[in-house]
Write a structure and sequence with these properties.
The complex is a heterotetramer of chains A (332), B (392), C (289) and D (250). Chain B has 392 residues and is of the alpha/beta class. Chain B is 43% helix and 24% strand. Chain B is globular and about 65 Å long. The two termini of chain B are 35 Å apart. Helices cover 75% and strands 3% of the residues of chain C. The longest helix of chain C has 30 residues, at 4-33. The chains are: A mainly alpha (332), B alpha/beta (392), C mainly alpha (289), D alpha/beta (250).
C-alpha cells in the first residue's frame, strides 16, 4: 500500500485506527474467562495471576509509557493492601469500597512521592524509588500495632460481594470479582493510552527533551501518571487482601518490586498487554516448575528469562506481535 | 454460595471416606524450599521424609502420598493459595509444614473452612493454633522456650541482663516472654535493643550491649545467617562468655552456627526443645539414620518435621485411616509419644506440645562442639495460652 | 560513648571495604561499558563457594584460597561475557536486567543444588580471628586484614587505570569505541578483561565476606541491593566514588546500629534517598556525553 | 513597536571558558535573521540560553515586551518562543501526525485529558495535519518517524516547532546534513512561513544566508562581532577575516 493512496477520510480517523479493538484482544479477554470453564482447579492461581497482572500493568503505565523506571512500585501495592486490610480489621469489610480505600490511600501517598520521582531519571531514580520503598516497608514493620508487623495483619475479613456472593474456598467468586476489576482497570488504562494524555506520556518516553521544546509540562504529566499508577497498584494490593484475607510485609517488599519488574519486562514493556501476559507466563511457569521441582525451580525460571531475552528482545507480547506480522504478510 | 461450597466440601469428604481403603491419604507439605528460609523448609521436609522412610508409606491400610509445594518466603497469600489448591485441586487431606508464622496463619483459615487436619511443624507464634480447631503443632512456641529460659536465668544467679532481639514479631514475643518471667523471678533488665531484621553485621550492637556491663546478654534471632554473624561479633568485641553469659534460643547455637563460630561459641547458653546430642537410645538412632540419609545433623526444624509425621501417622492409626479433620484432631488431642527429644504430649486444650525445655551450654567434647544439656525445665506449656485461659 | 567512636569507625570502615570489593566491578561494567550486570553478586558467590570448598574439602589454607576465588570468579564471568553478555552490550537496559536476573536465578538454584541451602561453615585460622587491644579498644584482626587488602586493591586499581597501558586502553575503549578500534585496540578483549577483573574482585569480596556475613545460595540476591547503593552513590564508573560510597555506607550503617538501633534500618535508605536527591549522579559521577 | 525578541548582556561561562559574553541584540517582528559564525562560536549555546535549556549567568531575555529570563523552558515555548534542533530530536516511534498533534494538544492544554479519545480531538488533529500538509509531509504522516527519509525528518523538526504557534522561531541549522541541492528547497519552505513569524536561523551556507536573511548576526568566540544587513556583512573586512576567511566560502 503506498502512502499516496491515503483515503479522503478525516485525519483524526488515522489516529482512531490504533485505538480500535483487535480480534486478538477480544480473544485474549475471552480466554481469560477460560479457567472457570475448563480449569476450575486453577481458579486461585488464575486470580493471583490477574492481580499480579494488574500490578504489572500499573507499573507499565509509568515505565512503558512514561519511561519512569521504578524499583519501588510494591510500596503502593502494599499500601493499598494494608489500607484495605486495616479498614477490614476495623470493621469495614465491604469489598468494592475496600478497593477504593486501598487505591485512594496508595494514590495519596503516590501523589506525595510523585514530587520527588518526577525530578529524577536513570540510576538515581531507580535507587530513590527503591529507597522510598524500603522506608515504607520499614515503617510498616515498625508500626506493629497497626500492621501486625512481621506476623502479618490479623483479623481481615471480607464481606460477601454485593451482600450475596460469599468468597468461597474454591475461589469462584474471587475469580470473577478479580477478573471484573482487572478488566475495568484495563479498560481505564487502554482508554488512557489512547487519550491525549497517553500520547503525551509516549512523547516523554520517546524524547523528553523534545517534549520540553514543544512546551510540555513533563513533570506534571509524570506526576499524574505516577498517581494513577499508584492508585491502580493500590487497587491490586487491595484485591489481594480481600481475596486472601491476609496482608503481610512481603506485599511491600523490594522482592515484590523486583518480581513485578521482571514479569513486566518478560511480557513486554509499553505494549498494554505486557504486564498481564508476563505475570501469567511467569507465575504459571513458576507454579508448574515448582510442582515438579520445588527446590530448584529457580533454575528453570532463570533459563526462561534468558531465553526470552535471547530470542524475544521486546518481551513475549513484542515477539507475538512480530510473529503476527510475519503470519499476516505470509497470509496475504 | 456459602451453602454450595460447604456442601461440595462435605460431599468430597463423604466420597473420600467411602472409598478410603483404595485411595491414598494426601499430605500437602507446604514449606519454603527456596528463598531466604530455604534451609528451614528443607530440614523440615528431611525430618518428615525420614519418618516416612523408617515407617513405610502405608498406615492403617492407606498409602501416604505427599505433595510438596514451595511457599518461597514470607508470603501468606501464596501459602493460602497453595493450601486452597491442595484441598481443591489435589483433593488433599492433611495440610502440613509451615516454617513461618504469617504463612501458617493464612493456611489456618483454609484448614478451618475446609475442616482439614493441619500440622504446623515449625512456625512458633503462640496464636497460630487458635486459627483453626483442626490444627496441631509439633514444634514449640517462642514464649514457651524463652519464658522457661527467663525463669531459669533468674533462679541461677544472673542478676542483670541486656536484651538484644530481632525487630519483628517473633523477636518481640520472645523478649516479652523472657523479660516477664525473668523480672517476675527477680532479675533486672539493664538495657534493651532491637536490631533490624536484615542486619548482617552485629559488632556495633554487641559493643553497645557489652558497654552496659550486664551479667548476661540475652539474644534472640531467627535462624539463617545471623547466629554466625552474632557469634563472630561476640568474639571480635571480646565478650568473654565465662564472665558475661550469652543466653538465647536454640537457633543461636544451631548446627551451622556452631560450625562457623568454632570455639567462639563455647559457653553460649541456650534453651531448646531438641538437640542432636540429646542422650537417649531413640535419639541416637534418629541421628544416625538422619546422617546416613542427608549427610548432615538433624536440627530443631528436622525434629519438627519428624514429629509432625509421627503425629500424622499415630492419628491415622487411631482413626483407622479416616482422614477427615474432625476425626484426626480428636485422635491427636492428648496423644503422647516418645520422640527423639523426649516424651511429648499434644495438649488437648491448646493442641500445642507440652514438653521439656532443655538448658544447654556449648562445650567442647572430644574436640567437637556440642550443645551439652546441663539443666532442664519439665512439662512446659505455652505461657501465652495459659494466660489467655486465665483471663477468661 | 565517645571512646567507641574509634571502634565504630574502624568496624564501619572495614565493612565499607567489603562492600567496596563487592561493588567496584559493577561500577566499572555499568559506568564504562554501559552494561547492567545484576549477576555481579552471583560471581561474588562463586568466589565464596570456591573458598569454602577448598578449605573444607581440600584443606587449603585460607590465604591460598583467596587468589583461587578471584581466579574462579573471573574465569566463569569471562565465559559468560564471551558467550552471552557480549551480545547484549547494545540491548536496552531492561533487556540486560532480565538477562542477568535470569543468570542470578540459575546461579541460586545451582548453588542450592551443589552446596545445599545451609549456611556454609568456614573455620578460619585462629591468628586471623583474634582481637588486638590497643589503648583500651579492641580491634579485630580480620577487619584489619580486610582493610589492608581493600586499600591495596584500590591503590592498584587507581594506579592501573591511570598509569598503565592497559588502563589507557580501557579508558580509550570506553570513551570512544570506534576511535579505539581505529587505533588498533582490541576493544572486545579489553572489555572481556575489564569484565573479568571486576568479577574477580567480586569473587574475592565474596570469599572475604563469609567470615563477616556468611554465605548461602541467597547471597547472589541479598547483596545486590547494597552493591547497587554503592554504585549509585559513588557515581557509575568511578573507582574513587565507589570507595567513598562504600565507606560512607559501611560507617553510617555501623554507626546507626550502634548509636540509634531503633532507626538504623531507616538510616541507610534515608541517606540513599537524600544523597541522590542532592547529587543524582552520585558523589563522583560524571555526566556521560 | 516592541521587538519580538530582545537579548541584553547574556553571559555564560563554563569554568574559565566563556561561551557567551555580553550578547545583546534585538529582533523586530517579522525579521528573518541569520546567525553565523565559525564552529564553536557559541551559536547553539546562544539558542540554548534563549530557550532556557541553559541558564545564563547574567543578562535578560525579553519576548514581546515580557521578561522571560526566569521562565522555565516549557513556559517560554508556551509564550511563543520555539526552536528546532541541529541534530534531529524527534519521537522515533510516533508518526508525524501523532507527534504534531501532540504538540498542538500541548499548546491547547489538552494533554491533561486522560479519559477522552485522542481521535475525538478533531480540531487538533486537523490543525496538525494542515501543518504537515504545508510542509509536504502529509503523505508520510502515518509512518513511524524513524522510518522517514532524513530530509523529511528535518521538515518534521520544523513542523513540531510550528505546531506550538510560535511568535519567534529559532532554527538551529535547519538544513544540517541535507544535501546542498535540497537545502534550497528546504529554505523555500521556511521562507514561505507567515510574515508575522520572527525567525532566527543558524546557517553555514553563505549563499543561503544572503538569499533568505534580511539581517545577519555574526558570532565569534562567544561574542557578537557585529550585526547588519546582508550587504553590510558581506562588505565587512572583519567578517571576511574571522569568518569567511577561516570557514571558506562554498
Amino acid at each position: 500500500m503506498s502512502d499516496a493512496s491515503v483515503p479522503a477520510k478525516p485525519p483524526a480517523e488515522f489516529l482512531a485506527d490504533g485505538a480500535r479493538w483487535r480480534w486478538a484482544e477480544i480473544a485474549f479477554w475471552l480466554a481469560a474467562t477460560l479457567p472457570y470453564f475448563v480449569a476450575q482447579d486453577y481458579l486461585q492461581l488464575a486470580g493471583q495471576v490477574l492481580i499480579t497482572g494488574l500490578f504489572a500493568m500499573s507499573l507499565d503505565l509509568i515505565l512503558g509509557y512514561a519511561g519512569v523506571v521504578s524499583l519501588g512500585h510494591a510500596a503502593f501495592f502494599g499500601l493499598g493492601a494494608y489500607a484495605c486490610g486495616v479498614a477490614s480489621k476495623w470493621g469495614w469489610g465491604e469489598p468494592i469500597t475496600g478497593l477504593l480505600i486501598g487505591g485512594a490511600f496508595a494514590g495519596i501517598v503516590g501523589y506525595g512521592a510523585s514530587f520527588i520521582v518526577s525530578r529524577f531519571k536513570g540510576l538515581a531514580l531507580i535507587m530513590i524509588t527503591l529507597g522510598l520503598n524500603q522506608l515504607v516497608a520499614e515503617a510498616a514493620n515498625s508500626a506493629h500495632g497497626l500492621t501486625g508487623g512481621a506476623d502479618g495483619l490479623q483479623g481481615v475479613h471480607t464481606w460477601d460481594l454485593l451482600g450475596y456472593f460469599h468468597f468461597d474456598l474454591y475461589g469462584v467468586t474471587a475469580f470473577w470479582y478479580i477478573l471484573a476489576v482487572v478488566f475495568a482497570c484495563f479498560l481505564l488504562t487502554r482508554r488512557m493510552v489512547h487519550s491525549p494524555f497517553g500520547l503525551a506520556l509516549r512523547g516523554i518516553r520517546e524524547n523528553s527533551t523534545r517534549m520540553v521544546a514543544i512546551g510540555a509540562a513533563n513533570r506534571a504529566h509524570i506526576r499524574k501518571a505516577f498517581v494513577i499508577a499508584a492508585f491502580m497498584a493500590g487497587v491490586a494490593g487491595a484485591l489481594l487482601t480481600e481475596t486472601t484475607e491476609t496482608v503481610s510485609l512481603e506485599t511491600l517488599s523490594f522482592q515484590r518490586s523486583a518480581d513485578v519488574l521482571v514479569m513486566l519486562i518478560l511480557g513486554g514493556v509499553g505494549q498494554l498487554y505486557g504486564g498481564v501476559v508476563g505475570a501469567a507466563i511467569y507465575m504459571v511457569a513458576r507454579d508448574r516448575f515448582s510442582d515438579v521441582n520445588p527446590q530448584y525451580w529457580y533454575f528453570w525460571i532463570g533459563l526462561l528469562l534468558i531465553a526470552v531475552v535471547v530470542f524475544l528482545p521486546n518481551g513475549i507480547v513484542g515477539g507475538l506481535k512480530k510473529l503476527g506480522g510475519y503470519l499476516g504478510r505470509a497470509g496475504r | 454460595m456459602k451453602g454450595i461450597s460447604i456442601a461440595m466440601a462435605g460431599a468430597a469428604a463423604l466420597a473420600a471416606s467411602a472409598a478410603f481403603a483404595q485411595t491414598p491419604v494426601k499430605v500437602g507439605m507446604i514449606v519454603d524450599y527456596t528463598g531466604q528460609f530455604a534451609d528451614t523448609g528443607n530440614q523440615i521436609d528431611n525430618g518428615y521424609k525420614l519418618y516416612v522412610k523408617q515407617h513405610g508409606d502405608t498406615v492403617a491400610g492407606r498409602k501416604i502420598e505427599t505433595i510438596r509445594k514451595d511457599n518461597g518466603g514470607m508470603q501468606p497469600d501464596v501459602a493460602k493459595r497453595l493450601s486452597q489448591e491442595f484441598v481443591v485441586r489435589d483433593k488433599g487431606d492433611i495440610i502440613a509444614g509451615f516454617d513461618l508464622t504469617p504463612n501458617a496463619l493464612a493456611a489456618g483459615d483454609v484448614s478451618a473452612e475446609a475442616k482439614k487436619f493441619m500440622v504446623v511443624m515449625n512456625a512458633a507464634t503462640s496464636i497460630i493454633t487458635t486459627k483453626s480447631p483442626y490444627m496441631t503443632r509439633t514444634s514449640s512456641t517462642t514464649p514457651q522456650l524463652n519464658g522457661a529460659l527467663g525463669t531459669w536465668a533468674a533462679k541461677n544467679g544472673i542478676k542483670k541482663v541486656y536484651t538484644l532481639v530481632s525487630d519483628y514479631g517473633p523477636g518481640l514475643d520472645a523478649v516479652a516472654a523472657f523479660t516477664e518471667n525473668y523480672t517476675a523471678a527477680g532479675g533486672a533488665i539493664v538495657g534493651a535493643a532491637k536490631f533490624p531484621v536484615a542486619t548482617l553485621d552485629f559488632s556495633a550492637f554487641i559493643q553497645a550491649a557489652k558497654d552496659s556491663n550486664p551479667d548476661a546478654i540475652y539474644i534472640w534471632t531467627p535462624g539463617g545467617t545471623q547466629p554466625a554473624a552474632i557469634g563472630k561479633a561476640l568474639a571480635e568485641r571480646g565478650v568473654d562468655t565465662s564472665k558475661v553469659k550469652i543466653l538465647g534460643q536454640d537457633e543461636l547455637t544451631g548446627v551451622s552456627a556452631i560450625a562457623s563460630m568454632g570455639d567462639l561459641s563455647i559457653g553460649i547458653i541456650t534453651a531448646a526443645m531438641y538437640d542432636f546430642s540429646h542422650k537417649s537410645p531413640m535419639n541416637e538412632k534418629f541421628v544416625k539414620d538422619f546422617q546416613d540419609e542427608y549427610k548432615r545433623m538433624p536440627d530443631i526444624f528436622a525434629i519438627g518435621g519428624y514429629d509432625g509425621a509421627t503425629a500424622i501417622y499415630k492419628a491415622l492409626e487411631k482413626t483407622g485411616g479416616k482422614a477427615d479433620g474432625e476425626s484426626l484432631i480428636a485422635a491427636a488431642k492428648g496423644m503422647t509419644w516418645e520422640s527423639p527429644r523426649g516424651t511429648i504430649l499434644i495438649d488437648p486444650e491448646t493442641r500445642d506440645i507440652v514438653q521439656t525445655v532443655y538448658i544447654r551450654r556449648v562445650t567442647k567434647v572430644d574436640g567437637k562442639l556440642i550443645n551439652v544439656e546441663f539443666d532442664k525445665v519439665d512439662n512446659v506449656k505455652d505461657p501465652v495460652k495459659e494466660k489467655m485461659k486465665a483471663a477468661k | 560513648m565517645i571512646g567507641n567512636i574509634i571502634g565504630v569507625l574502624y568496624d564501619g570502615f572495614a565493612y565499607g571495604m567489603l562492600l567496596f570489593l563487592l561493588s567496584v566491578g559493577m561500577s566499572v561494567t555499568l559506568g564504562m561499558m554501559n552494561f547492567v550486570n545484576l549477576a555481579h553478586c552471583a560471581f561474588a558467590m562463586i568466589g565464596g563457594f570456591v573458598t569454602v570448598t577448598l578449605i573444607n574439602n581440600f584443606g587449603w589454607p585460607f590465604l591460598a584460597t583467596l587468589p583461587a576465588a578471584f581466579a574462579a570468579a573471573a574465569a566463569v564471568s569471562v565465559v559468560f561475557e564471551r558467550i552471552l553478555f557480549r551480545r547484549f552490550y547494545r540491548a536496552t537496559d531492561l533487556d540486560q536486567c532480565l538477562l542477568t536476573i535470569g543468570v542470578v536465578f540459575v546461579s541460586i538454584a545451582a548453588a542450592a543444588y551443589f552446596f545445599g541451602t545451609t549456611q556454609q561453615p568456614v573455620r578460619l585460622p585462629d591468628w586471623i580471628r583474634g582481637v588486638v587491644a590497643i589503648g583500651g579498644h579492641n580491634f579485630g584482626v580480620y577487619r584489619f586484614f580486610l582493610i589492608v587488602v581493600a586499600l591495596a586493591i584500590t591503590g592498584a586499581l587507581i594506579f592501573g587505570v591511570e598509569h598503565t597501558s592497559f588502563g589507557a586502553r580501557v579508558r580509550a575503549a570506553v570513551d570512544n569505541q570506534r576511535m579505539a578500534r581505529g587505533l588498533g585496540i582490541n576493544v572486545d578483549r579489553v572489555f572481556a578483561l575489564t569484565f573479568a577483573l571486576g568479577s574477580g574482585l567480586a569473587g574475592l569480596g565474596g570469599a572475604l565476606a563469609i567470615e563477616v556475613v556468611g554465605l548461602d545460595p541467597q547471597f547472589a540476591f541479598t547483596y545486590l541491593v547494597y552493591v547497587l547503593i554503592v554504585v549509585s552513590l559513588g557515581g557509575m564508573g568511578s573507582v574513587g566514588g565507589a570507595f567513598a560510597a562504600a565507606v560512607l555506607l559501611g560507617v553510617s550503617d555501623t554507626a546507626g546500629k550502634y548509636y540509634m538501633p531503633q532507626v538504623s534500618a531507616f538510616l541507610i535508605y534515608v541517606i540513599v534517598v537524600a544523597l541522590l536527591m542532592w547529587r543524582p549522579l552520585g558523589l563522583f559521577g560524571k555526566r556521560h556525553a | 513597536m516592541t521587538a519580538a525578541l530582545l537579548a541584553k548582556g547574556l553571559d555564560k561561562r563554563f569554568g574559565s571558558l566563556v561561551v557567551a559574553g555580553g550578547i545583546s541584540f534585538e529582533l523586530p517582528v517579522g525579521e528573518r535573521c541569520a546567525l553565523i559564525g565559525p564552529n564553536g562560536a557559541g551559536k547553539t549555546t546562544l539558542i540554548n540560553l534563549l530557550t532556557g535549556m541553559l541558564t545564563p549567568d547574567a543578562g535578560e531575555i525579553v519576548l514581546n515586551g515580557e521578561d522571560i529570563s526566569r521562565a522555565p523552558p516549557a513556559r517560554r515555548v508556551r509564550k511563543g518562543l520555539a526552536r528546532t534542533f541541529q541534530i534531529n530530536s524527534l519521537f522515533p516511534k510516533l508518526n508525524p501526525l501523532e507527534a504534531t498533534t501532540l504538540a498542538v494538544c500541548e499548546r491547547r492544554g489538552e494533554t491533561g485529558d486522560f479519559l477522552g479519545r485522542l481521535a475525538a480531538r478533531r480540531d487538533a488533529v486537523d490543525e496538525a495535519y494542515d501543518i504537515l500538509k504545508s510542509l509536504r509531509l502529509d503523505g508520510v504522516c502515518r509512518r513511524e518517524t524513524r522510518e522517514l527519509a532524513y530530509g523529511q525528518q528535518r521538515l518534521l523538526e520544523i513542523a513540531l516547532a510550528l505546531a506550538t504557534q510560535p511568535k519567534v522561531l529559532l532554527l538551529d541549522e535547519p538544513a544540517a546534513g541535507v544535501p546542498k541541492e535540497d537545502s534550497g528547497e528546504l529554505f523555500q519552505v521556511i521562507d514561505g512561513l507567515s510574515r508575522q513569524l520572527t525567525l532566527l536561523f543558524i546557517e553555514h551556507d553563505m549563499d543561503v544566508v544572503f538569499r533568505f536573511a534580511s539581517r545577519i548576526l555574526v558570532m565569534v568566540g562567544g561574542r557578537l562581532l557585529l550585526e547588519g544587513t546582508p550587504a553590510e556583512i558581506a562588505n565587512d573586512a572583519r567578517v571576511r577575516e574571522v569568518y569567511l576567511g577561516s570557514a571558506g566560502h562554498g
